[in-house]
Amino acid sequence: MSGIYIHIPFCQSKCFYCDFYSVTKNEGRDGFADLMIDEIKLRSDYLINKQVDTIYFGGGTPTLLHPSYLEKILVQLHEMYEVSKDAEITIEANPDDLTPGLLTRYLQIGFNRISIGTQSFFDEHLKLMNRRHNAAQAKDAVMMAAKYGFGNISLDLIYGIPGMSSDEWEQNLDVAAGLPANHISAYHLTIEPGTRFGKLKKAGLFSEIPDSESVEQYLKLISLLGARGFEQYEISNFARNKRVSRHNSKYWTGEPYLGLGPSAHSFNGTQRHWNPASLAKYSTDIRAKKLPKGETIDSTMHRNEYVMTRLRTAAGIEKSGFRSEFGEAAWSELLDMADEHISKGYLVLENERIRFDTEAWFRSDGILSDLFLL
Ligand code: SF4
């Protein structure tokens, strides 16, 4: 089964940590759905398997687009693809955009999962990151989504925020786990070049928290959510009652997906394509019926990506799957490359699987590079 990602590239204001592609002007919003419908038609041959079981509207801020436009896009997708009856159809939402009327409308037009960008339940953290909602709105949004019929709710948290105490992080986890959400994505704040935080860092006015505190917060995340019934199924993702994100899981298990909208990436099993990260360029390209740039995944890239994405998951790399994809000798080679990290306890080999040890997972980059073929 395939997945479809829709990038809605509009935000009301830019969060200081964010390097996703989005524009803060209203210009282009009204014509955007028609542009995307043109792209859906233009790229209708991209997915070899027309059966789709996940659709994800992300961004940017999908809740800034009028629901009639979101509906138009969904109707077009249903016309072009065989969307399964139990498909997971997600909308990302900003807490302060949500109203009872809007939530009801989202359910009517076919969304059955909502991912709410709560980030923190402290006003000072939200202000520091230039989020436009406050702590009360973050909680209310999740409660409201449940009250008006969403049974599958995810929320986002950020840790490693400069100035956030250990106690505040525990409180954030406690509040999140007490809300009617079955999925939590928790990301460590990273300071990316080009963002407001990146510029402040360059000027010596802002910096990451010490590494030891980051690890402490990460371990707290796992233990506190674990105690509240959330299973860590990926380095940054936790689910209870088995409500894993079926869409995001496709990225970690090599399933094909079509990404539509500016900056969206696609993968059809053998090639990767990406749209320009510019609304103006995207519009020009779609009007000229120009297809996005791409690259063919060669066997080394495929093998390295397989290792990298599977090791993001708690399931890790399973011997039988790896062998059937790359052969017996490749599995032995991987074990040789992993040997030192297994003996140090950073990687765990058990039940014919290799996975990260919980703490080493947090520092996985250095270890992963030792497992790549050059
Ligand atoms: S974090 Fe989300 S809401 Fe904030 S600027 Fe980025 S895409 Fe927009």
List keywords for this structure.
single chain, 374 residues, alpha/beta, TIM Barrel, Arc Repressor Mutant, subunit A, 2 domains, 9-stranded mixed β-sheet, 3-stranded antiparallel β-sheet, 42% helix, 21% strand, globular, binds iron/sulfur cluster
Helix count equals 15
Helix content: 40-55%
**Attached small molecules:** iron/sulfur cluster
The number of distinct β-strands equals: 15
Net shape: globular
Report strand %. 15-25%
Q: Termini distance? A: 31 Å
Structural class: alpha/beta
| Number of domain modules | 2
Classified by CATH, the class of the largest domain is Alpha Beta
Largest sheet: 9 strands, mixed
Q: What topology, given as strand order, has the largest sheet?
A: 7-8-6-5-4-3-2-1-9
Order of secondary-structure elements: EHEHEHEHHEHEHHEEHEEEHEHEHHEEHH
User: How would you state the average pLDDT, rounded?
Assistant: 97
What are the segments in which pLDDT stays under 50 over at least 5 consecutive residues?
none
Quick one: CATH superfamily of the largest domain?
A: Aldolase class I
CATH architecture of the largest domain: Alpha-Beta Barrel
CATH topology of the largest domain: TIM Barrel
* Rounded Rg: 21 Å
